[in-house]
What we know:
The protein is of the alpha/beta class. It has 13 helices and twelve strands.
Amino acid sequence: MSSDSISAAMRQNLSQGSMIRRMFEAGIELKKKYGNDAVCDFSLGNPDLAPPVQAAQAMQSLADKLSIPGILGYMPNAGFAWAREQLASWLSTQQDMHLEARHVMLGCGAAGVMNAFFHTVLEPGDEVIAVAPFFGEYRFYVSNHGGVLKTVPCRLSDFAPDAAAIDKAITTRTRALIINSPNNPSGAVYPAEVLREIASVLEHASSRTGRTIYLVSDEPYRFLTYDGITVPPALPLYRNAVITSSFAKNYGLAGERVGYIAINPGMDDAEALMDGLIFSNRVLGFVNPPVVGQYLMSGCLGSSTEEAVSIYTRRRDRLAGILADAGYAFTPPQGTFYFFPKAPGGDDKAFTEHLAQFLVLGVPSSGFGMPGYFRLSFAVDDAVIERSQEGFRKAIKKFQ
Ligand SMILES: Cc1ncc(COP(=O)(O)O)c(C=O)c1O
């Protein structure tokens, strides 16, 4: 392979790789060697629950229509008009704000619509702030479109954003702030008063810099909280807010790639932003959101997530017990299906490699922009959690 066969930037991305992916591959090797059942794999955030029963009915009624010409054909780049309407109505209740179809766009997962958003708003060299720890893929969603991701540490006490630190990080090049609550990987749910402080910081900073600074609230885990905690609506908090999300986690449709972006109707030039998003959906090659995904969404919208939440609650409680008994330091997640314990010894990469020797796989936190921790996904069967007890106990011995 000649040295210029792929771009220098891509070469660098490939050499750094994704830690989640690397742990996934290490897991495959360990499973080959010791057998599938011996390895406790907490590395991937891929929901393991079946979709709601309404998904089967939606598939059946779509199957009955398959003889209609064009049923699976292209559609408007923002999604079916009826799907946008249904989504807008569902989100109006969730976000406590009246939204119409023209304020939402469907796309290929939260990942796809975030790419469409940054493609629409970034000038080359623009900065996007993320609060660490953050979902590592944000780096690419921003750099894919000429932007630079700048990170600001969270408050160590509760993993919530530090509004004063965000204010300090804002420059004349700042275009957006990404927040993610409930947070992957920390499991924190950001308190309403912190969100209000952030909105005020952004409002003042926009006037100071003379630029629209967007708040991007990425919320695929909104449905999954514990102990009666709720996630405050983000859209009404700030004029230039958008939310991104998908039906990957709540309805177990991750591979079906149906996601959405909603914009605050009162924002600066809302129509131009939506036109840009729809254009970006097209030219980035997504073209339109998946047909089957929209039918699935339509069938599932409004169906209860109570059963899923109760399964995750049971798993969270059991894993919390195992980690606490073994002596790990952690804050129990308020939402999501992730634990984010401190890495014994302080070196997250060294510890996750050490833990793997006991056939337990987690992900080092460096990839989430906050070294010193490791992430465990409990989107796994209860039996895996049960089996992990011994590995967790043995792995920490060296540090006690
Ligand atoms: C915080 C966060 N944002 C976005 C995504 C991407 O979601 P989707 O599969 O809908 O593209 C994920 C997936 O794990 C995530 O954890």
